[in-house]
Amino acid sequence: MTVGSAQAPEAPGRMGVAAEPAALLSYLELLGRWRDARRAELNELDRAALSSATGTAATADIALSLALWKAVADRYEQLLVVWDSGRVGVSEREKLSAMIWGRLDAAYANSGLSVSLPEACRLSDALVSQLRVRLGLDISALETTQRIAELRAQLERIRDQISLEPAGVRQQEAATTQSKLARRLKEITEKAGRGGDVGGLLPALEIDAARFERDLIVGAAKRREARAEVEQVRRLRAGLEAREERLRALASEAVATVDPAPRYAVPDVEALGPVPNTMDRLADYRRRLELVDRALTLADEAYSNALRQHSDLLARMDAYHLKATATGVADQPSVANAYGLATAALAERPTKMALAAQLVSLYQTYLQTMTAS
Question: Which residues form a coiled coil (predicted)?
Answer without folding.
Answer: 223-253
